[in-house]
Every structure is written in structure tokens, then in C-alpha cells.
Amino acid sequence: MPRSSTGPADADTYVAVCDRTHLFPGARCRVQGLPDPRGFAARPAPIDVDVRFSDGVIADARLSADDPAAPVLIVAAYTTAAGTSIDGRGWVVRGTVLAGDEVELILGGAAPV
Predict the structure, then answer these.
(1) Cα(113)–Cα(111) distance, integer angstroms
(2) What is the DSSP letter of 21?
(3) d(Cα 37, Cα 28) in Å, to the nearest integer?
(4) What is the DSSP code string of 35-91?
(5) Could you list the pLDDT tens digit for every one of the 113 residues in the chain?
(6) In sequence order, which residues have a C-beta less than 8 Å from that of residue 11 and are 6 or more positions away?
């Protein structure tokens, strides 16, 4: 069941809007509310993220930037609005693009978590 949040869970969590109900290689999510989007796009830093999917479901996630050249988006398990269970997993972020005041994360393949 979707969380009924309309914004980040707390002040240190950012919303990442995805246009699909799940993630896959090539998927894109737009991180909103970053204080320095240009700097973040150039050099991603670790942040907590609420991934908001197109069906309204929100999943907890963390962008890990232990290796700034290969950040990883780690998404907790969640259930889509249609009832499909999606296991938690990590996704390599193969690119970041500045999109106005948002930063688009472009996902690559699965990453170990």
C-alpha cells in the first residue's frame, strides 16, 4: 500500500520522482529540492531519498556515493499499487543530468548491496 506522504519523510530526505512503477536499467528519477543541484550533478553526495513512483507508491532509498565515480541508489523493498512485491536492490547510477533545479539520476545495472 502506498505511503500517504506528500513530501519527504524528514528535512534531510529528498524526493526522487520516477515516471514508472519500478526501476530498470535506463530508468530515470528526478531528485527534487537539492540545495545545490549543479554541484550535486557534478559530484553526487550521499543522501536519503523517498523514491516516488508513477502509481503513487513511495519507497525508502539511499544514494551511496562511497565511490563518487560510481554512486549507487539502494532502494528498499516495496509493493506497487497493483500489489506486485519488488525486492530491495541497488542500482548503479550511470549518469547525473542537471534538469533545471532538479538532478536526473540515470540508472544502470544492478549493484551489490
Answers:
(1) 6
(2) S
(3) 16
(4) S-HHHHHHS---EEEEEE-TTS-EEEEEEE-SSTTS-EEEE--EE-TTS-EE--EEE
(5) 333 343 444 568 999 999 999 999 999 999 999 999 999 999 999 999 999 999 999 999 999 988 767 899 999 999 999 999 999 999 999 999 999 999 999 999 999 87
(6) none
